[in-house]
Amino acid sequence: MGKLRSVSIFVTFLFSVYSSANDEHSLKAVVDKALGQNQFIKSSSEETRAEKKLVTSKYNLSDPSIGITNLNRGNETEYITVQQKIRFPTKYLLEGMAQKRRFQASQSQYLYSKLKLREDVINLYFDLYAAQKTIEITRANLQIVKDFARIAEKKYASGKSGQSDSMKAHFEITQLEITLLQLEQDEIKYQSMMKALLSDSSFENLNLVKYKLSQPVVNFDEVLRFDQRLQKVLKESSPLLKTQEKKMESSQYKRKLAKWEFAPDFNIQYQERVSGLPVDSKIISVNATIPLWFWKNSSDASYASAKANAEEYKYKDMTLKLMSNFKSLKARIEKNNKILNIYKTTLMPQAEGAYRSARSSYKSGKATFLNLLDSERSLYKVKQEYYKSVAKFVRDVTEMESLMGRSISNLYGVEGVLK
Length: 419
Hints:
Blueprint: H1 2-22, H2 27-37, H3 39-59, E1 65-72, E2 76-86, H4 89-157, H5 163-198, H6 220-228, H7 230-237, H8 239-260, E3 266-276, E4 282-288, H9 294-363, H10 369-404, H11 414-418
Antiparallel strand pairs: 1-2, 2-3, 3-4
């Protein structure tokens, strides 16, 4: 019988996991929908594609020109003329390499945009869950206080307590009703924000209470490994730092290109007779530019050098800021994880115990109505703060994952974005 029950529980668990994974309101489904439909992500993808298409053009020659030339030297002769401008070969190489780095920077920025969208969707999902759970417990609390009010009224009618207990209960009811209105307004706001992220105004409102979302599990060993070789991990995987690195490399190629602008460019021209005399007349000419107005090239080189220096400083500054952000996030995640454990193991059991004791004591006349209300408020506040703390914990975790470009938790999405 015991084995049969275990199998039944296991099958039920598998079914619930499968159903959740295939539910369009599950976290996985919502994140995937956002990544597939969000208009900003589509825009970022097209920008990346545009940068890629420019790479080939930067390595290639410009279009040749063709025309007719009339030459009158006593005998009038018409020539067909073909002309091709050719830059110094090194310039094509450097221009192409600079554009390739811009394309790679755009790729990294696109990846970060997807990670940031995932972060926003997950954070909003948990904010909405916290709001809906708080609405649920507020409604339950409202019903409890209404029960208190009826008890207080009966006691007042029988002369066992004063009218103040009933008045306090009705005041508490009014306060809870105001809170409920505010929470319902927050829920409407979150639902609208989610539809915007999904780029789907007709998307059905999410009902997340049924999912019983819990605190994400963080791999603190992985976080510690990141911390121990932080600069190397950031350089390897942070989309933000990779974006700036590629921008810096592009500017460095531009600096080299500016110096090569002193090298000559060429103009090759071929002319062949089409009418007139002499009959077999052909002309080939080759021209080369000279840096006569050298101060222009010097100014361009100085500009490119300053821009390259600026990008290098930005890269160093971003490295330091990302390292600082990581340290701050790591401390917050560790602190909030401990706080959530205190809520689950200490505060919530204590608040529930105190409430049950106060309710029992009030019914038997051993506690005042004020004591009962205090215990009810304490339990309500503890539950409310717990759901807020979970949402705050999720925000820190997803921000670190976006910053690092790596997964540190069991939250869905990082691996899918990195594919």
